[in-house]
Amino acid sequence: MRALVISGGGSKGAFAGGVAQYLMEHKKREYDMFLGTSTGSLLVPHLAVNEIGKLYDIFTNVQQQDIFSVSPFVQRKKGDREYVSIDFVNSLWQFIKRKRTFGESKALRRNIRKNFTYEEYEKIKTNKHDVVVTVSNLSMNRVEYKSINECSYEEFCNWIWISCNYIPFMSLAKVNGYEYADGGLGCVIPIREAIKRGATEVDAVVLEAETLGKQKVLGKNPFSLMISLFSHLLDQVERNDIVIGKLAAKNNNVKLNLYYTPTSLTENSLIFSKRLMEKWWKQGYDYAEMRHEDD
């Protein structure tokens, strides 16, 4: 049983889309299971129904307003560099309203339901073994994996949304009395979960470079420094997930193929730029092609 696993990584998910396109269209790989965390959870349902063209259009055209109903960021450009800074008005308004997050991501929930249809949900349940998304149950301090086979259409769309909620910048969700957020807070790339669910071969796309090629630039104000800190912590979770995944693969005689980004794509994956995401999608395709040029 073959599984495709995609890590979290915000806008860098475009790179994973390119890798998946090459593997599925050129290498003709057919996957029984798809597992994703955060941005990976947005990708896997569309890949499961082989809607790569539709996924490319959705992903490379996403903008801040497609994600945030209340955005804590202002996107700016200085020369060729694109970056985000705090939207003090929106963040202050959130505090006045006694909200616990700097922003709200209800626009993303609407877009998930708009782009992932009930017909596609039914097609996956009929034709694929499983599609799984990762969420963090903050109330119980644990990671949970939500299978499409155990959820209604509405529930599964909601879990996809929750898997992407990178707090404290996006919404904190409540389900059955428990509070949930981004799956990456507990498991950035669920390789071991794919193996536990029966995968005998795993292709895992890691939306981070294998080694840090250059010194990171830390934030120049408390808000941007917080983003840098969260990025650092998630990098440590991701490395731990990969070590555990490799051990699980070795102990269960599972073939594990890891696809890292060849370089660090961005220091802030909450920037959604059409130009950059189109570039990263092509880089993902080209990188996968290079990896398999001797096959």
TrEMBL record:
Pfam families hit by this protein:
Patatin
Where on this chain is DGA/G (motif)?
A: 182-184
Q: Which positions does the motif GXGXXG occupy?
A: 8-13
The active site is formed by S38, D182
InterPro entries this protein is in? Answer: Acyl_Trfase/lysoPLipase, PNPLA_dom
PNPLA domain segment(s): 4-195
**Keywords from the UniProt entry:** Hydrolase, Lipid degradation, Lipid metabolism
Motif GXSXG in this chain: 36-40
Q: Does the keyword Hydrolase apply?
A: yes
The molecule here is called: Patatin-like phospholipase family protein
The species this protein belongs to is: Winogradskyella echinorum
